Amino acid sequence: MLFCNIAAISYSDNLSVENITMKQGEAKVISINFNNEKEMYTSFQFNMYLPKGIDPKKLTSGGVVTEVPEDRYENPSSQTTYCGSRHDDDSYVFICFSASNSLIIGNEGSILDVTLQASADIEPGTYKCKLGKIEFAEQENVDAPHPMEDVSFTITIEENEPVILDENSTVLPTPKNTANVQLKRTLVGGKWNTLVLPFDLCYDDVLKYFGTKSILAKFSSASTENGSTTIVFNRDRKKGIKANEPCLLKPENDGDEYMITDVDIVTPAVSNVIHDNLQFTGTYVNGNKVPEGDYYIFDNKFYKSANLSNIKGFRGYFHPLVENNTKLFNISLDSDGETTNIESIYIYDNSEMGIYNLNGQKIRDNAHDTTDLPKGVYIINGKKSIIR
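The structure assignment produced for this chain is given below.
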């Protein structure tokens, strides 16, 4: 402890903390207010008792996020704040002292602002919190600290309503910090899916949300020779998904909805990845068509668009920057310096495909777009298919 020999004198000086409300996953500042009759103190300490799931926000350096209001200190630059780790009694010890033994000045207002961080999964509700073991040291008698009464306050946690990112939406995502996301994106397990997201997702979280056997790959190079184009993707086991950057994902299982917590949604602006005159780009909204001459992946096959192919949101496609009449695409995965051919994918011209009813009438040009089709039996790519 910084202080010792508690004085037995009673003072009217006191601390106070206002009750606050915050959402799951949110960070918020609380102010430690001090009402004092005289300018006589230099240093103070207290224990802050917090429920599990609410903690002082950590800095990357290991400290916590605090600020001393300059108008309450004679020499603000000499103030140092220390906060240890959580104790067994669910308290954090805060010590704020002046290296030059300068005074706390003024008679009211905050003497310390502390940023608290709520976890994304803390249960909503009102939690009782407390400042206890409060001691202040006088400038003239540092070894005789003054104790003060405990201070009670509450923190109310509200549910952080998830942001819905829907592949069928025609509206761009809205930026938001510390968001819970309900991602509605159909992914086929065991096959390559293009994906672009407006938030970072570390590699461990990729495995957490899409399956521990999922494979993430980044576009790294492309080359064309003798009518065959080889696209090389590097397997990513470290960085994860970068916001606005399209990638390939082979999830462990099929899925169409994923709850992803505590992410920062950035301004949605797809970053094109370009290698050897081939651009990997993407879209966040439904309703656009893959431009004519561009390529997209469906069911582990490359298709050359005839401007008939609708593309839903959170997907990517390939745009040749020069004329490309290749008939075969090879996707290779470069893993730990070893290049392994994953699959050879022939180019399919979807201008010859379509959806027909049982009377042989063509009702849709794009055989991959079954959106809003009534329930029934159709002929799709020459095969009978049931839309349920």
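Interim note for the steering committee: The longest strand covers residues 125-138. The CA atoms of residues 375 and 388 lie 5 Å apart.
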